[in-house]
Amino acid sequence: MQIFLINLDRHPIRLKRMEGLLQGLSFERIAAVDGKTIDGLEKRVNQEPISRADLSRYERACILSHRAAWLRFLAGPDRHCCILEDDVFISPDFPSFINDESWIPENGGLVKIETYDHRVFVSRKRIPCLNRSAAQLHSTHFGTGAYILSRKRASIFLDETSDPDRALDCLLFDETAIQKRSPIYQLLPALCIQGRNIENGILFPEMQSAINQGRPKKKKTVLNKIKTELIRPFRQLKNFAGTKALERQMRARCCIVPFA
Fold this sequence. Notes:
Structural class: alpha/beta
Strand order of the largest sheet: 2-1-3-10-5-11-9-8
Distance between the termini: 21 Å
Shape: globular
Number of helices: 7
Radius of gyration: 19 Å
Largest sheet: 8 strands, mixed
């Protein structure tokens, strides 16, 4: 399958790093849309978008960049493609999965091959995939750094993102998307992880995500920090009980998807 690498013109160091990681694999660079060059909010007004107007221009640029990759994919003959963003780290096993499509589940129109390093719910049933396995996602799993896409699903996403009201990782991998487009698969362990989600993953300033510029961060006061620490054990106990209840209800398992 063809690899499409999304990369900004002003990020040549990222491109050079990815050329080294993908050495021996054929890939096509997709010139990313620069959020600095389009209209829109510099920072998102609401923590969670509730309308099209809430998206920052960087989030809009991300969507436009992925749309360009999908269009390029559909212009070719391949049944599946791999979309990569240029801040990912990849497993040594990555080439084996790119060079052999037989592992992709028959109904696997969308397979997430990265991890965002937070807890998600995945099906207990696993499908063998070479030396790994695939499980259905049952909860939101953020990130669009690395995924496998079918032609049918690419066409659907082009329609759904013509006038987007959510960030791309929500449009592809949040609970609404999962309910609407099930099954969405997660590869276990993941083949990729973005730099911001791995220790020592930010190697140089260019590795910082432009999208984060558009996401406001709330600062905690000292009093709020103390309060958070005092209630942490009770919250953890409540979350543990809630997690076990959800696992039974969804017949799923809660875990952090490892990267290996």
